[in-house]
Amino acid sequence: MDSNLFDVLLTEYRDRINMLTEAMARGNCASFEEYKYTSGQLRGLEAACAIIVDLKKRLEHADDE
């Protein structure tokens, strides 16, 4: 599998994480519900990034064998 795909996904997800984090820091969440929703998006994106990094490492090691 092309590791470039992983890099593109990581870049997109990290850009989204940065955008959401900046929005929260500026106080753009109008309600507690919106804050919880945005926090959930951040957790999900961070988890996805961790999974992608792990999968990328596994595939790179599998290629070495």
What is the number of helices?
2
The tally of domains stands at 1
Estimate the mean pLDDT confidence.
93
Our measurement of the CA-to-CA distance between the termini, rounded to an integer number of angstroms, reads: 15 Å
Beta strand % = under 5%
Derived structural class: mainly alpha
Secondary-structure element order, N to C: HH
Poorly predicted regions are none
Overall geometry comes to elongated
Query: Number of DSSP strands?
Result: 0
Q: What level of helicity do the residues show? A: over 70%
What is the rounded Rg?
15 Å
**Could you give a short account of the major beta sheet?**
none
Protein architecture, described:
The model has no long low-confidence stretch (mean pLDDT 93). This protein is an all-alpha fold and 65 residues long. α1 packs antiparallel against α2. It contains two helices and no strands. It has one domain (3-64). The chain is 86% helix and 0% strand.
Structural key phrases:
elongated; single chain
Question: What is the topological layout?
Answer:
Blueprint (H helix, E strand, L loop, with lengths): L2 H23 L6 H33 L1
